[in-house]
Amino acid sequence: MRSDNTVIYKVFKDLNFSQAEIKIIEAAMEKIVLKKGVILIQAGDNVDAMYFILDGCLRTFYIDSQGKEHTIQFGINDWWITDFTAFFTESKAIMNLEVLRDAIIYKISRDAREYMFAQIPKTETFIRKKLENAYAAFQKRILSNLSQTATERYLNFISTYPNIEKSIKNYHIASYLGITTESLSRIRKELAKQ
Amino acid sequence: MRSDNTVIYKVFKDLNFSQAEIKIIEAAMEKIVLKKGVILIQAGDNVDAMYFILDGCLRTFYIDSQGKEHTIQFGINDWWITDFTAFFTESKAIMNLEVLRDAIIYKISRDAREYMFAQIPKTETFIRKKLENAYAAFQKRILSNLSQTATERYLNFISTYPNIEKSIKNYHIASYLGITTESLSRIRKELAKQ
Known about the structure:
The structure is a homodimer of 194-residue chains. Chain A is α+β, with helices and mostly antiparallel strands. Chain A is built from eight helices and six strands. Chain A has a domain at 2-120: Jelly Rolls. In chain A, strands 1, 2, 3, 4, 5 and 6 form a six-stranded antiparallel sheet that branches. Chains A and B meet through helix 3 and helix 5 of A and helix 3 and helix 5 of B.
């Protein structure tokens, strides 16, 4: 019980729940332990769940029509991750979800999530606000890409994902920033000189 | 009363409300009539409201560090529009909101929206689902841009915004598609030939 409660209060920071509410949330969330390298979602899959990362590192990536990989999101401790486009619109996955570092995650299915929201409205308010922030962050990132240099985008990346660099490969970072790995090492060298 | 109720049932399709609930929603929404050319939000403004478009056409655009305009979203009848990044994160506008065709819109402030959600939880569920779809649509559009040709993006644009072309200028469409106006007319000519 105790460890699950810890997860609940990590997911819903600053909220308080009755024992009855905790039972509902615990029933909604399923613990999964995953090894590095696992592909949790593949393009074309049905996506009926989202995942809260208790510990570990995952990423979603998109493969374009030329076969080039684009890293869309990294997920680290206390973040939600899935193919949100597929999950929200009940359509097939267009992205892939990969485990980059051994992970402990909590899965919540679409139905369990809707049931939890209906039973405990404050969880819906909390998640709605998270979603608003995620929407804003994603839009801001796209707009920043229009104005920022690769170096500025790299510095943003570091502040968004502190301590992530040891878990992931250089080509993951480069594909997230939309640059080559050669450009990435040039940027790092230039910053190291300063 | 009647015309306002019409708006309520346009905003919350398929929901039913008691008279008391209708009063709360009516009090939350303020009707505004706007002329073509009005700039409703300018980069740097505080953004404390979002807008439901009963009739008309608006767009949000971003000006990058080189002074180039990027059209981010068009809003047509029954759509919500604002600088969502600023509204959701309570920060200054990074985009501009312009009226492209005379419009009747309904404004809801951040506080009025939160009050309405707290009083009538089904409005929050409804808007949370809208937001999930908007997040998915925006992410899908960004990913499509990585794989699709300009012609495919133009065809997508037409199906997303039917009948909008007569309300807006060619350079608005071009800046939404990320192409020049010359490329846009070339695409149109090629499609006309088919």
